[in-house]
Amino acid sequence: MKLRIHRSEQIAFDGPVREHHLEWRCAPWDDAGQRLHRLELSCQPVAALASHRDCFGNQVHRTALLGAHDGLTLHMEAEVETQLDDPFDFKPVPLEREREWLRNALREAPRLWDLVLARNAASPLLDALMNGDSAADLGVHAAVADGLPVPGAGTALFASLQAANSWIGATCATTDPADMDADDGAEAAARGPSADTPLRSAAGSTTELALLLLAVARGWGLPARLVSGYRHAATGFGHSTAHAGLHYWAEVLVPGAGWRGFDPALGRLADGAYVRLAVGRDAGDLQGLRQSWKGEGGLGEARTEILVEPLG
After folding, report:
1. What is the reported pTM?
2. Is the pLDDT reported for residue 181 higher than 50?
3. For the chain, which domains are there?
């Protein structure tokens, strides 16, 4: 699938600032799974944008505005061709060799251990549930605990992951910050996403649902990473898809298939409509905009606008 992505960031300050340094993660990956054919970036006030790769392979653009200003606009336009139209299209590894395949992958790329051993707020709760502790004593919602997935001895890991993805989507509602009242929305933003929220309340943001799936996969000994990116919602007329922010899903290293994306918020697997932007252990690794400044001004309104449209 060929897609064009437009993204703009509008940042306002309530007073003049200077020596404004920022890092911006906005550019889609360019790898075997998706080809980045064109990327154009601009900044207003005008400033040169340099780039580097972070430790996860994400492209980071950076700039500095030394003079006084009270606002900033960043714009990106990219054209991407995704390659994974069918996430089920791979040659599965025999069941008895799946763990050997994973051991070899970890031996060849030891840094993958970071994505196995990383734990989040859902991990101790899942461990306790697996050990037979009471959901009520742990503060876990009964409807979520009842369907807790367990990898079967005669079941492929890919099938077990699909079951976990469906379990989260079926038992946990997806919350939208735009639907919260002002106080709850501000509190959620200050707190940041937490993987245990879906377990406790049977609801969570797209990020929190993906973090819960990461905790499940890592508990099974699988390398798993959080992904932020762009998604095109296909319609009968191929219309553009507008978003107020990024989409989040989980990627797990599947024997025989490599990285495969799971989107528990929508109960589906990532296909050609998904464009990977950044990956990491948790939401902190994926922070899209990092900045610091001097001056009298404080951060006022910050707005993100994303438009994804099909090409051809």
Report:
1. 0.92
2. no
3. 2-83+287-310 (2.60.40.2250), 95-282 (3.10.620)
